């Protein structure tokens, strides 16, 4: 039987596995440190489409097709699809996965959505609701700037605490069939609100949520920081990482040598002028698919806590003066021989 | 063990129950046919807030508190919350449920979200991931018009095929504890796209999805229309109902005497000038809580197929000329002695 652990976690007795994954990224990501690791990149960030939104949908579909193709699985052999993105009413997902015709659970967890999708996929497989689930998320620099900030044509200046939204999509086939990476547990995040209101400093808004979920995970599973080879956040960036370290220290945990942030590894901060680092649903997803999973698969990392982080704002709530709370979901990934 | 049924359904061996529910609605809904049945209504559609968005959040919180209070359950005794709304980045939910501090799965399924939330809550309880889950959704006429159409101050004319977004929120406590209503199964919907592009005729956009999910449910469970006392869609309205009847007829099913649509019962079409009927995440949710569940609880209806319907559009996708696909999730509700 699956087990409830502590206040917010589940451990899976019979673990679901990440059978395969696919990553698609844009031109700037292709020039970054992980550029060679993505399954597919495109010099044209429109991915053959006429709009940024359609481009994002195309990436999402490609990522799904890649994950399915690598495992020789047809869409109709996938029971449910869990997917989401950053756009209003999740259109990148609805338009992206439509042609796959897999029964869909649409999600919204801001940039934590890849964690949410993996958690629900793993929970559904472990409960016997199907042999295979597909988890997919995406973000696109063009569509995200248009949605949250300013249209690209305005050429607005960005503060140094601002993130660069990753153009990318990652899809994960989660199932009962054995692979070298299992999902051994999940920690479902709560909304954490420190009252911050600066939409150009998402790292600060999300760091408290990351801290909350990491601490909860350690407590729920009775583990210490040393029990993980890496604790990997989604897109806190340079500013958020500093805050996370301080907050964790305040709780008596030192995670400095174990911590990695997807937003900090996906771009070269200096040469790529990406300020606080990469962000977006796609950031954690493509880094997991292209960089983290291969290391776990090979056994280089035995146990990783993957914690995608999200900032829960909209342009409307922000303009009305509401604060920007954060949320983060923790996924425990383990190497299997 | 829970059982996979057919292509898209699950039947629960040990059924989760709807332990309690709460409904909050606005002034127009209070004047409608169901007005006296809601747990709470307010003559002030701002619900004490300064913005429509905050008003919607307040309703959502109240609906949750009502559902919890009726069952004498504290927020910390609820394992996970599944919630969503129609606004960009689901802010009504993030802001609404924040103070409850229940680990959150944010959802987006347009007006089908109440079905999605109930399905995932039931799946989580049946899998043993917790004793109790909370499913909540909301919509608000003011915030929805601002989000999708025109600010209210413009006083735009509405075509007769347009819906009137329901101001309301419904919350459902789903758990292992026995009640008189059990969730015996779910049918997870696929995206169904007939290529329609008229955002003022949502009924037509959603009817094909409703048909698809109802037919799939009957096939997956090996049932006929007669096996249900009612087949209840979320917000097809008068236009959508006609189309649904035709589409069902085309598949060899006559559901006319069994069908009810929440969007058609919540307002009095003539005296309230609501055109095609009510719509929104809140429409199906408050109708379920205030009108449908009591009938099942009393045994007046023994088995009901509840099918909230959603139209997957955003103002961006719509303005870019994309079609409006639909999605619908089916929840099988049964009377228990």
From TrEMBL, chains A, B:
This is Stage V sporulation protein AD. Gene3D superfamilies: Stage V sporulation protein AD. InterPro entries: SpoVAD (IPR010894), SpoVAD_sf (IPR038369), Thiolase-like (IPR016039). GO terms for molecular function: acyltransferase activity. Pfam families: SpoVAD.
